[in-house]
Structure formats: C-alpha cells, structure tokens
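U., I forgot to send this yesterday:
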Amino acid sequence: MRVVVVGATGLIGSRTVARLRDHGVEVVTVSRSEGVDVTTGKGLAEALRGAEVVVDVTDAPSRTDKESVEFFARATDTLVEAAATAGVEHYVVLSVVGAERLEAGYFRAKLLQEDLVRRSRIPFSSLVRATPFFESVEAMALMNTYGDGVHAAPVLMRPVSADDVASEVAHVALGVPLFGVLEIAGPEEHRLDDLTAKLLAARGDMREVVIDADAPFFGARIEERTLLPAPAAHLGHGTFAQWLAR
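Result:
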C-alpha cells in the first residue's frame, strides 16, 4: 500500500508517518518544506502518483476565522481534485469534534474542509474528528491572556494526546473506509479553566485564571458541552498529567 501523508511535518503528521511506517507501509510525505504547495498544487501530481490512500492532516497557518477558512477552501479543493485525478481511492481527513455544531472561527473552516472532501470525486472518504489536543490548552492560554490574567471558559472537554490521534488516523488509513465519522478523545473529562490552572502551575506561571463564559476557543464562543465527543467515541490512553510531566 502506498499512502501519501499531507502535512507530514506537523504535530500529528510526523507521528502519523511514524505509525504507518511501523506497519511496513510505503509512505510519501508531503509538506511545503519538501517543495509541495497544497494551495497552488505545485508538486502534488508527482507526490500523488500511484497513491491508494491520502491522509490529510494539513492545518492552517493561522487559527483566525478568515485566514483558516481561506486556507482550507483553497488547499482542500486543490488536494481532493489532484487526488481524484491521480486515482486515489480513499481520502482520510482529520477534523475537530464540534465542527458540525459551530459555525464560527476555526470550526467553520474545518466544517468547510469536511464538506469539500465529502463532495469530491474520490470514491471513499473517512472523517476522523479529534477533541482538542493537550497543546490546544496552552495555545488558548496564550491567545486569551489579558491584563487581569488568563481567561478560560468553564466548558467540559476530553483533551487528547497527539500520539493517540496519530495512531487512530493511521489505523483508519490502513483499514476499510469509514463511510462516515469516527471521533477520538482523551480518557478523562476536565473543565477548561481547571486545565488552564494546572498548565500555568506546571509552568511556574503565577497569573490568575479568570473564569469567563465569553472567552473564545479558536474564535468561537462555546457552550458547556460543545467540545465533548459522542458516547461512541474511541478513547485514547494518554492523560493530561502525563503530558505535563513530559
């Protein structure tokens, strides 16, 4: 099997490549650093030649609404068209839990990406939605820092490790197409403001965590259960405490 991983040098992409190679799969890595541009199509035809499966773990250079929508609209349209032309049979895309419930911020961009994949000419597609990575908690702390402290919404979530997400994505790529959606989440349920406080404490950061229901999460205002997966979600093994310890 020949699998092309697009976004291969990123947080999830690099780990997905390693998991696939552990299974003896021929992996072609695609990234801008290797001369392939998914927004223009430069180098895509050659990279996709002979591929049976494409794993799309691309991410926008910015998590803002406008820039992320523009990136996924252009990149995904280019990718699925090039993959269809190359005869790719199975397209696996990584998205986010909650995309179908929100029409704002980064979530709107990911929902657009999902729709473009579903409507493409590729015969089979599989959609893997992940809950926020542990690293997202740190990103939110940076984005929502103000004069009085770090603002965090009191919402529930099951943050997941990048390793667990990569393992699930690789498993889907090697298996029968899902013909639908699979969700992957962490093993523990937390509140975002509690996680933020634990993160700051572990970093020796003395700033206060301000509970703020209006604090955005990647550009979207979220309700208490928006980021929680469905009961049938696959649960990973890595915990937030283990990630902090590393």
